Amino acid sequence: MSEKVDLRSLNLEECLTFVKSLGWPSFRGKQIFSWVHQKGCSDFSAMTNLSKEQRIVLAEHAFLRTVTITDCQRSQKDETVKFLFSLADGQTIESVLMLFRQKDGHDRTTCCISSQTGCPLGCKFCGTGTLGAGRNLTVGELVGQVYAANQHCKEIGWPFLSNIVYMGMGEPLLNMTNVLKSLALFRHTEGQHLSGRHLTISTCGLVPQILALAEEENPPELAISLHAATDEKRSALMPVNRKYPLAELFAACSVYTNKTGRRITYEYAMFQGVNDSMEDAQQLISLLRGKLAHVNLIPANYLPQTGFYPSDSEMIKKFADKIEKSGLAVSIRYSRGQDIAAACGQLKAQKEQGR
Ligand code: SF4
Predict the structure, then answer these.
(1) Using the 8-state DSSP alphabet, how is residue 326 labeled?
(2) CB of 122 closer than 6 A to ligand 1?
């Protein structure tokens, strides 16, 4: 065996093959898989059902791709924590951890994870978009964000993660292979054992990848970053719309809904004077009428480098009322962590560019 293997990137079958190559029985592979993906173990010395000698052998042939917390900010206003992680090659990424208190006492903890170290798609309002293209995260780096977040939950007395959303830095469907593998690890009964309903991919609307995702056996929930209801306006905000205009995007969304039975969430960040008029609301209603859709209105975080300002709360309320009266499902997503730079790419941009 020449190169060391990242155990965090292996699924169960690959883990069994790996232990076989060491001459170990397959139950060792199952034990190691459970240490890595169920318990989120980041250190071979914690694998107490392996002998000291076995742990030494493991360290000679494998490693655990950990992501290291270099900054951790906890909001004073709501139960939101933002992490800045450093990766083995010195790059940085962000994740956001949010606790949602529930009346029935079953509190929900959601982690919003990154899929790339930057993003080539250049949406005009996005902090990550201003950073430019980065690289795809490995499977170990994708799952590592979740395991580090779970460890943090344990330390601060929050429940372990119940929901994972791929809505942080980067476009997850540009990193499809690794994202799909990480989803399978999160779903695995010997891993985090989360159902597809608790895993959400948010995309700016890459049509071929949405169609491919619809073919998955155990598809995740899908959220589309829509943000405008006409091609003219959406192309101005999101260059990707020139490649995949609304008609093509919605044809792919119909396929996804028909194949999976899943209702799609349409994210609509509201920018003052840009997409928040009553005419915009009417165009959105016309676009979504008759579709299995949920509209999520997002009061945008103010990012000085983008030049977009958030809509005021009265405007957002009026917009939501109009959509609700049309019969479409709509919610306003309370913008969390405003005191800790919780918007996608904001903390990294601040650190790198002194913003
Ligand atoms: S919104 Fe998403 S797709 Fe657009 S630039 Fe930002 S990270 Fe990329």
Answers:
(1) T
(2) yes
Residues 118-165: tens digit of each pLDDT: 999 999 988 887 888 889 999 999 999 999 999 999 999 999 999 999
From atom 4 of ligand 1, which residue's Cα is the shortest distance away?
A: 123
- Is the CB of 204 inside a 6 Å radius of any atom of ligand 1? yes
Which residue of the set 41, 94, 112, 123 is catalytic?
94
SS3 percent helix, strand, coil of the chain, rounded to 5, is 40, 20, 40
In Å, what is the CA distance from 5 to each residue of 21, 172, 349? 12, 24, 32
Same fold, 5-63 and 68-353: no
Is 129's C-beta closer than 6 angstroms to any atom of ligand 1?
Answer: yes
- The domain locations on the chain are 5-63, 68-353
> Is 94 considered catalytic here?
yes
pLDDT tens track for 290-312: 999 999 999 887 777 778 889 99
- Of all protein residues, the one whose alpha carbon is nearest to atom 5 of ligand 1 is 129
User: Strands 221-225, 163-166: parallel, antiparallel or unpaired by DSSP?
Assistant: unpaired
Nearest to 255 by CA among 226, 282, 294, 215: 215
Q: Does domain 68-353 have CATH number 3.20.20.70?
A: yes
Catalytic residue among 15, 111, 112, 344: 344
Cβ-based burial of 114 (10 A; exposed 0-12, middle 13-18, buried ≥19): buried
